[in-house]
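All the exercises in this workshop are built on plain-text protein records. Sequence and backbone structure share a record, each on its own labelled line. The structure tokens are whole numbers drawn from a learned vocabulary of backbone shapes. The record below serves as our worked example for the rest of this section.
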Amino acid sequence: MTPLLVLAGAMVGAPLRYLIDHAVQSRHTTAFPWGTFAVNACGSFVLGLLAAGALDGSVPGSVLALLGTGLCGALTTYSTFSYETVRLFTDGARVLAVVNVSVSVAAGFAAAGLGALLGSLIRG
């Protein structure tokens, strides 16, 4: 059953990633990959929320599989983040490449932490 839950979540997460990435990136004219940044930060927030709930027992494993592994796994993207960073670097935008890595990693940690904090406040 768990593989089907992961698959169902991924079937929503992958197109959602495409739509969010496209919507965000189309509003910016810079070389910075704002779309990838947005999906990774959003996915980190949701995963932080879910993981904190799973740790305290309020989020069942089935929900974690569906939304954490399936949805967030397909929504977020390390491969595109890596590719876009390398592309920035090789295109001569080395400062943007370093900013992309630094800001994306910091935002991911912060978003996951905020999700965990919000989850603990909601659950009391």
Notes: Residues 94-123 form the longest helix (30 residues).
